[in-house]
Fold this sequence. Notes:
Blueprint: H1 4-27, H2 34-59, E1 63-67, E2 71-73, E3 77-88, H3 90-94, E4 101-108, E5 111-119, E6 124-129, E7 133-136, E8 139-140, E9 153-156, H4 166-176, E10 182-184, H5 189-197, E11 203-206, H6 211-223, E12 227-230, H7 237-240, E13 243-246, H8 248-259
Parallel strand pairs: 1-3, 9-10, 9-11
Antiparallel strand pairs: 1-2, 3-4, 4-5, 5-6, 6-7, 7-8, 11-13, 12-13
Helix pairs in contact: 1-2, 5-6
GO molecular function: inositol monophosphate 1-phosphatase activity; metal ion binding
Keywords: Hydrolase, Magnesium, Metal-binding
Organism: Paracoccus siganidrum
Amino acid sequence: MQSANLNIMIKAARKAGRSLVKDFREVENLQVSVKGAGDFVSRADREAERIIKEELRGARPNYGWLGEETGEEAGEDPTRRWIVDPLDGTTNFLHGLPHWAVSIALEHKKEIVAAVIFDPAKDELFVAEKGGGAFMNDQRLRVSGRSRMIESIFATGVPFAGRGPLPATLQDLARLMPLTAGVRRWGSASLDLAYVAAGRYDGYWERGNNPWDVAAGILLVREAGGFVEGLRDGDDPLESGRLVAANAAIFDPFAKVIRSRD
Length: 262
């Protein structure tokens, strides 16, 4: 049984997803003008957040808010907060690549207690509640059962356009890739974590995430039986934006490789 809050989150994600799919179909027509496409996608992003905010705050007006586009707003209830990325994978969206998602998390007393990640292009809805497990389109999710690094696939984000810790990430890749079956960079942190929860990836790490990038995905992985920790001992992965996630068997050797620099 899904909670009332999770039902509200699903409704908001699907409504924003319908708006984004409609806009996504228009992106191809705008590729002749880079500026035109970029401006259009920015408007689509803001409109998706407006839709989500209207749905969530309309249903729970006393909850706080943290959104990628509109920032942070305190609520009358200081213990609860929505954390929202209306379009995770904006660059993919801009280039007509069908790999992007709507991500919504509910935080209660500094802990994520409900999560929704919706991939409208593939019609995949990932949901989780604390203590209730993780699901994709009503199917129970479990992290992969692989126990050997050399058979495992990992995901990360590679900094671009001079942003973020590129040298550290390149060093990670140099250490990790010889030990694994491969590393993927698909441009959406929320879906990377959802794919770990679904067993499609065996692990994920990244530096420099924002809370809205990973809040929902962290709960999904944990409720699917995986581990998520900060890159450094004692780090809160949500606050630091530096995290490592994997199934139970792979986590320790994988984290050891990534943490050897940190």
